Amino acid sequence: MNVSDAVDTRMSCRAFTDQPVDGAVVRRLLEKASRAPSGGNVQPWRIYALTGQPLQGLVDKIDAGIRTNPMGTPTEYDIYPKGLTAPYRDYRYKVGEDMYGLLGIPREDKVARLGQLAQNFKFFGAPVGLFMYLDRQMGPPQWSDAGMFLQTIMLLAREEGLHTCAQEAWAMWYPEVAAHVGAPDNEILFCGMALGYKDENAPINQLSAERASVDDFTTFQGF
Ligand SMILES: Cc1cc2nc3c(=O)[nH]c(=O)nc-3n(C[C@H](O)[C@H](O)[C@H](O)COP(=O)(O)O)c2cc1C
């Protein structure tokens, strides 16, 4: 698989089969992804990788928590800027509507929408869940480095026949995740990532998120 194929076939997979992922594969992915660049080679990422009972135990805890508190805890960082403006707000709205449209969930059906949100906290059925933390001293440049690490994992996963979904939604349950994985107080949860084999028959995996055109986001100068 060449890089373009990996980029083209990566998508946010929101339904996985229960086929397990070998621990050696997960280790290989993380080892290779550690070649991702970071300013000053600071390598700010801290990863907790879960499968089997450690993963299921967390899923069960959050499942119980959702029953009394469907939205978890207010997040430690703004997942989206407050008052997000156009065009970004429109992109966000469109992908959400496209996703719920595929699932046949209308806007006013809040219960069904919450039910879909809750799928995040089962890692969409994936057998492996990763959590990305950063030391709290890190700022925007290091969070950007962490993003490159995440994307490198996601592209390498394609080479292994695997799919992924990055999941900021886990930030809604940061106290429970930290207690479960044993993350120290000096680390902040950025996001989770589901990792596994794609359920090819799941309608939600047909979602193809649109992109703005190059001319919408690039100012070419001197070409
Ligand atoms: C850092 C990050 C966090 C994300 N968090 C979530 C999430 O919590 N739940 C979810 O369903 N998708 C999540 N996504 C997936 C985005 O919605 C998705 O990348 C975007 O709509 C583009 O679609 P694509 O990845 O299929 O190309 C996240 C993506 C990134 C990069």
Major β-sheet strand ordering: 1-2-4-3
Quick one: CATH class? Alpha Beta
Q: What value does the Rg take, in angstroms?
A: 18 Å
Strand content bin: 5-15%
Distinct ligands, ions and cofactors found in the model: flavin mononucleotide
Which geometry do the CA atoms define? globular
Low-pLDDT ranges: none
Largest sheet: 4 strands, antiparallel
The CATH topology corresponds to: NADH Oxidase
Number of DSSP-assigned strands: 4
**Domains counted in the coordinates: how many?**
1
CATH homologous superfamily name?
Answer: NADH Oxidase
CATH architecture: 3-Layer(aba) Sandwich
Tell me the series of helices and strands, N- to C-terminal: HHEHHHEHEHEH
Discrete helix count: 8
Mean pLDDT equals 97
- By secondary-structure content and strand pairing, the structural class works out as alpha+beta
Oligomer: single chain
Distance between the termini: 32 Å
Folded structure, characterized:
This protein is an alpha+beta fold and 223 residues long. It has a single domain (3-208), classed as 3-Layer(aba) Sandwich (NADH Oxidase). It has helices spanning 3-9, 23-33, 52-68, 88-103, 110-119, 140-159, 174-181, 214-217, and strands at 45-51, 128-135, 163-167, 187-196. The two termini are 32 Å apart. The site of flavin mononucleotide has 12 residues, from strand 3.
